[in-house]
Specification:
The structure holds 2 protein chains of 2 kinds.
Chain A lengths: L11 H21 L8 H29 L5 H6 L10 H4 L5 H22 L5 H29 L3 H14 L11 H8 L10 H14 L22 H15 L6
Helix pairs in contact in A: 1-2, 1-8, 2-6, 5-6, 5-7, 5-9, 6-7
Chain B lengths: L7 E7 L7 E7 L3 H12 L7 E6 L11 H9 L19
Antiparallel strand pairs in B: 1-2, 1-3
The chains are: A mainly alpha, B alpha+beta.
Amino acid sequence: MSAASISVKESPLVLYALRRADDALILGHRLSEWCGHAPMMEEDMALANMGLDLIGQARELYTYAAKVEGADNDEDKFAYLRDVRQYRNLLLVEQPNGDFARTIVRQFLYSAFADLYWCAMTASKDKTIASIASKSEKESAYHLRHSSEWVIRLGDGTEESHHRAQAAIDDLWPFTGELFHSDESDKALIADGVAVDPESLRAGWMKTVSSVLHTATLKGPATTWMQKGGRSGHHSEHLGHLLSELQSLQRSFPGATW
Amino acid sequence: MSTQNIQLWEVFIRSRNGLAHKHVGSLHATDATLALQAARDIYTRRGEGLSIWVVPSDSIVASDPAEKGMMFEPAMSKIYRHPTFYDVPDEVGHM
């Protein structure tokens, strides 16, 4: 490891873009881990496609963050040269793939939010973010459809698939509270109409999730206790391992291209 | 998971308005909804399509390759069925 981490001047807008970019990159990377390992070839392709959509979203958001920051950073530096504590993604998206049910449930919980979020963000007063939203919204809508169909089939499938899907819901549920969290840094952006207040999406998210879980014969846990920390760089133990793989090449051979 | 016992589907893509759906390949899926999604994910990644049909492979009635003599050879000798024996008057223009 020889390349040092960059420093980032996190103005509210830079931080806002980085948080969403990190969500997309980390979830996209998780999906890429399935490449060549999915239960069937058709699903291998579907997961890789979703991963590529997300990595595409991350690239646009990183590039915009770099432009707003106006320093020497770019999309690659944000992705490859920030330490785990500098990552701002939701804890939900860094959770390990586990079995297929867990990957699908994680995707479903995230996409049910992302679909509403990007739809709302198409009305952002920030033209670049509105344009990224308009592209991402169509991608997220498909991710939601695909993951919903699988949640229904796993939940209402065999005893084994039901058990695995329910276990994934129970384990990942405490990471969903962070989806609706906003902090001081977000407040002015929300007031200015640049960002949507994620709390305003909660009812819609709950409606989608409840409806799919009901069809899938799965239950939303009664627990209301929620994990948080990802947005301020306090991550679970899994993100460091993910980053060590994601960043190893650029850390060992700074600036390597091919 | 083995794909051995999962239904096979044939995929047809229409690339542009006005063109016909064209067979592009097959895939495995447990039901029609997932077959359509898999077709989208496998066969339209490079912007190939505007419309997708999926059809259960066992719904297709196919000719028997062993009967190709009886089925297709009689047409080979009937070149007069090709519209190549007519002179198109210049006034008709491009056909």
